[in-house]
Amino acid sequence: MRRPLKYLFLAASMAVILALALSVESPSDNPRAIGPVWDLATGERPLATGVQLELHDGVRSQWLLSAPSVRRGEGGVLTFQEPRLALAAVGGGETVVTAREGVVDEEVREMLFTGGVTVVEVPYRRLETESMRFVPSRRELSGDDRFRFSDRGLLLEGSGLVVYGLDRRLRVDRQVRLEFATDAGSLP
Asked: Could you report the per-residue pLDDT of 115-165, keeping only the tens digit for each?
């Protein structure tokens, strides 16, 4: 009588293990369920979800790149969905870059942000453009598209922008338009 009972418990435990294995491997209709997440636009499974990459100089964080998901693309590039890059600013504080998509080329170690790129240093200092490149080795942001930069009482528009070393020096290549307001609250 003991032997059939032993086999019954063994079969029950194997059934539980099999059910757990199948539930972990199959995507769920419940968006809050834990398990693989599939990109509905492309139908592919991301390389990772809830990604955070950070670079330290030994004392403090230099930059932190985070995104809900990342996929591996052709040519050794990583594509981040809705990336957020937080850069430690010279003299304290941080500069935050957000976009709809970001691509990191592992070979040249550069980041390209595309689609509704926004760079915010403090609540009132804001840069908007369609694409922006970040070169970590030079701590440089650059882009060839049209941009709009606003600060208290200042509006700067143009095409082709380079922000050097995130130390508040910049170069605008063409179509420069600069506007100062007499009242700091009058510019959009």
From this structure: 999 998 877 789 999 999 998 888 888 999 999 999 888 899 999 999 887
Whether 185 maps to a domain, the answer reads no
Same domain, 107 and 157: yes
The residue segments making up the domain with residue 52 are 48-180
What's the per-residue H, E or C state across 101-152? EEEEECCCCEEEEEEEEEEEEECCEEEEEEEEEEECCCCEEEEEEEEEEEEC
Total tally of structural domains belonging to the chain: 2
pTM for this model (two decimals): 0.70
Q: Note whether 112 and 59 are same-domain residues.
A: yes
| Residue 75 and residue 145 share a domain | yes
* Residue 140 near residue 108 (C-beta atoms within 8 A): no
Q: Mean pLDDT across the stretch 38-50?
A: 60
For residue 37, report the phi and psi dihedrals to the nearest 5 degrees: -110, 135
Q: What would you report as the CA-atom Rg of the chain, rounded to the nearest whole angstrom?
A: 24
Q: What is the pLDDT of residue 22?
A: 47
Q: Are residues 30 and 75 located together in one domain of the fold? A: no
